């Protein structure tokens, strides 16, 4: 009886061991399958996220490349247009210089013709008859004549005077001066002595031209003419009226 009981117990224990082993095997298979399934799902999930990010990164990269190409194209257009603008500015500058030169020449000719009002610094020369000398019977030897006035006027023009007037009467390129006894006639208008000759120009230059040794001043003084010169900060001359 005891031997039979032991055998039955052994069979029962052995059966339980087989069942336990089967249970463990099934549980192990289930755990392994679950782990494998989880890895596969995570892998697919990661691949899906990575692919979406890659597509987004690629799209942004393409946009950046397109913007850089557009920027380079616009820069090249800007450089080209800037170069053309500089060429246009050079042409306009040349034209402006030409027009300015023409305007300056026209203004200078109008000044010489006496057709415009002018003002500026200059000098004022006064020519007066010399003192009467009883020993000198010829009165013409101490009177101011037209050639005395001509010497002063010509020297002033040669020295760069832009405008000249005698006793306030403006001279032009067509002016004439005639001596008639104690008076001179300028363009048909008579003027008594003293004869005040005004000239607009560089005062030091005009003064030096008249005062140089052996020049106009010395010649007039030798002819008994009273010569005085004064520098002026401002001289105003009106235009010549009439035709």
Automatic annotation (TrEMBL):
InterPro entries: DUF881 (IPR010273). The keyword Coiled coil applies. Pfam families: DUF881 (PF05949). Gene3D superfamilies: Protein of unknown function DUF881. Residues 57-105 form a coiled coil. Keywords: Coiled coil. Belongs to the UPF0749 family. This is DUF881 domain-containing protein. It comes from Neobacillus notoginsengisoli.
């Amino acid at each position: 009886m005891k031997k039979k009981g032991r055998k039955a117990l052994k069979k029962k224990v052995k059966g339980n061991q087989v069942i336990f082993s089967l249970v463990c095997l099934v549980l192990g298979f289930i755990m392994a399958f679950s782990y494998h399934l989880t890895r596969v799902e995570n892998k697919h999930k990661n691949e899906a996220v990575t692919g979406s990010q890659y597509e987004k990164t690629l799209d942004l990269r393409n946009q950046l490349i397109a913007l850089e190409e557009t920027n380079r194209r616009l820069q090249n257009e800007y450089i080209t247009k800037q170069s053309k603008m500089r060429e246009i500015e050079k042409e306009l500058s040349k034209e402006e210089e030409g027009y300015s030169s023409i305007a300056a020449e026209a203004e200078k000719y109008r000044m010489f013709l006496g057709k415009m009002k002018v003002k500026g610094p200059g000098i004022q020369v006064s020519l007066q008859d010399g003192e009467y000398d009883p020993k000198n019977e010829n009165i013409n030897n101490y009177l101011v004549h037209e050639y005395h006035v001509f010497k002063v006027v010509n020297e002033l023009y040669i020295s760069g005077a832009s405008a000249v007037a005698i006793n306030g009467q403006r001279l032009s390129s067509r002016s004439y001066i005639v001596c008639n006894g104690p008076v001179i006639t300028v363009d048909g208008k008579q003027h008594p002595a003293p004869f005040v000759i005004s000239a607009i120009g560089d005062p030091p230059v005009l003064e030096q031209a008249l005062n140089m040794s052996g020049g106009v001043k010395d010649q007039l003084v030798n002819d008994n003419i009273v010569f005085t010169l004064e520098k002026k900060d401002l001289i105003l001359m009106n235009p010549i009226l009439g035709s």
